[in-house]
Amino acid sequence: MLMLKLNSLVDKVYVINLETATERLEEVSKELVRNNIDYDVIVPIPINNIEIENVNEYLGWNVYAKSLSLTTQKILEDAIDNDYDRIFIFEDDAYIRDELFETSINNFKQLVDKNRLHWDFIHFNYDNCKSLSIEKFYGFNLCLSGSLRCQAYAINKQCFQVYLDLLKTKEMPIDWVTRIIQVDRKRSLLDYTKPVFQKQGEWSTLRNDVVDY
Questions:
Q1: May I ask the CATH architecture of the domain 6-197?
Q2: d(CA 157, CA 84)
Q3: Where are the beta strands (DSSP E) in 76-191?
Q4: 197 burial class (0-12, 13-18, 19+ CB within 10 angstroms)?
Q5: Long-range pairs of 76-79 with CB within 8 A, sequence gap ≥ 24
Q6: Domain boundaries, the chain
Q7: Contact at 8 Å (CB) between 163 and 76?
Q8: Distance CA 160, CA 156 (A)
Q9: What average pLDDT does the segment 171-197 reach?
Q10: Can you give the pTM of this predicted structure?
């Protein structure tokens, strides 16, 4: 069990989970309880009657990805309404490398305490980031070229409204929206060690696709 709780650093931890995915919730619950994390389950927006645009423009953009975007908007609205400072979002297919995660949480605490960088996101898992800062910010690298993957990430208050506004206006997967913010604002961090991971060959949380990366 972690000596330092993630909940001491964020106002709320959200877990996105389909009501029908009971086994997935059981699995992610084991991961979170083992790492001393309290969480609230958020049920995704139903895919019924969801209309999407740009279907062929972005890989993985479908009704499932649109549901995830709408659900993330609901989370951000909750954070704004409650005047939260920081939140953390897990998708229900997250698995945790305990020792690496503990190191990350301790690094996160130093970042919060020192407030050295006015960061937007901290990604605990990522894909397709081709350029990182050489300088580390309490164990985290600055993501310069943008990355993909919103499976486990912290969001800072300064980015709530920016992120929400883009999600409302952009018809694309949330990974691509976060990438826009990462590249434009140069304030997003990631943990190079990837303390959270996704098992190969499993269904992703909402997209109708199997994970093979």
A1: Alpha-Beta Complex (3.90)
A2: 7
A3: 86-91, 95-96, 121-123, 132-137, 140-143, 152-156, 189-190
A4: middle
A5: 76/155, 76/160, 76/161, 76/163, 76/164, 76/167, 77/164, 78/12, 79/11, 79/12, 79/155, 79/157, 79/160
A6: 6-197
A7: yes
A8: 7
A9: 93
A10: 0.91
